[in-house]
Specification:
about 0% strand, mainly alpha
C-alpha cells in the first residue's frame, strides 16, 4: 500500500504537465482528456502532443506514440505470470499495465502483495492522472510553467526508492548502471521516451556477458 500510494500520487500529479502541454499543442480539452482516459501511458501521450506541437504529421506522431507504448505488451507478459488474474478481469487490468504498476508489482515478495500493489497503483494513478489532466487542460494559462513545480522529478525519485533495494547482486547493479548511462547519454539526441527503450538494452547485454563468463569458467573447470 505504501509503495502503491507513493507512486500513484507522485506520478498522478504530473498529469497537470500533460494537460498543459496538450492544450499548448492545440488539442481541445475533450481530446486531451480522451488521451488520458484511453491511452493512459504518459511517455506515449507526451510524445504524441510533443510531435504535434512541433508541427509533425498526426499519423507520424501517432505511430511514434504507438511504438513507445509497445513496451507495455512486454510488461503484460511478465505480469500475467506474476498476478495470474482471472480471465474476465484481464482485459480491464490490461489498461493499467504501465511502467508504474509494473514496478510496484515486481517489487513485492508475494503474489498477494503484487496484486494489491498493482491494483492500488492502477486505481490511484488512473484517477489522479485523469483529474490532473483535466485541471491542466482547463487552467493551462493560469498554471504557468509546470516545470517550476518540480513534478517531473517526483516520479523518477519514487522509482529510485523502489529500485535501490532490489539491486542485490553485481549483475543487477551492472544492468542498472549501464541503463542509466545509456538513458542519460541518448537523452539530448533522441525524442522523448526513446532513451528509455535504448536503456533497456542494458539487460540483454549484461546477461550475455554474464553467460559468457559462466561458460568460460565451466570450460576452465572441465580442464
Amino acid at each position: 500500500m505504501r509503495d502503491a500510494l507513493g507512486v500513484g500520487i507522485a506520478v498522478g500529479l504530473s498529469g497537470f504537465a500533460f494537460g498543459v502541454t496538450s492544450a499548448g499543442a492545440g488539442l481541445t480539452v475533450l481530446q486531451t482528456c480522451a488521451l488520458s482516459l484511453l491511452v493512459f501511458t504518459g511517455a506515449s501521450q507526451f510524445a504524441l502532443v510533443g510531435a504535434l506541437a512541433a508541427g509533425g504529421n498526426p499519423l507520424t506522431a501517432a505511430a511514434g506514440a504507438f511504438f513507445l507504448g509497445v513496451r507495455n505488451a512486454f510488461y503484460g507478459l511478465r505480469l500475467s505470470q506474476l498476478l495470474r488474474l482471472p480471465g474476465p478481469v484481464r482485459p480491464f487490468a490490461a489498461q493499467w499495465v504501465i511502467d508504474e504498476t509494473t514496478a510496484v508489482a515486481l517489487a513485492q515478495s508475494t503474489r498477494r502483495g503484487a496484486r494489491i500493489g498493482f491494483t492500488v497503483t492502477g486505481v490511484t494513478l488512473y484517477v489522479l492522472w485523469n483529474l490532473t489532466t483535466l485541471g491542466g487542460a482547463l487552467g493551462a494559462d493560469a498554471l504557468g510553467d509546470t516545470n517550476a513545480w518540480g513534478l517531473d522529478a517526483a516520479g523518477p525519485a519514487v522509482f529510485l526508492a523502489l529500485l535501490a533495494p532490489m539491486l542485490r547482486t553485481a549483475t543487477e547493479r551492472a544492468v542498472a548502471g549501464i541503463a542509466v548511462v545509456l538513458g542519460l547519454g541518448f537523452l539530448p539526441v533522441l525524442p522523448a521516451g526513446v532513451p528509455v527503450l535504448v536503456a533497456a538494452l542494458a539487460a540483454p547485454a549484461v546477461l550475455w556477458l554474464h553467460g559468457r563468463r559462466l561458460g568460460a569458467r565451466r570450460k576452465g573447470s572441465d580442464r
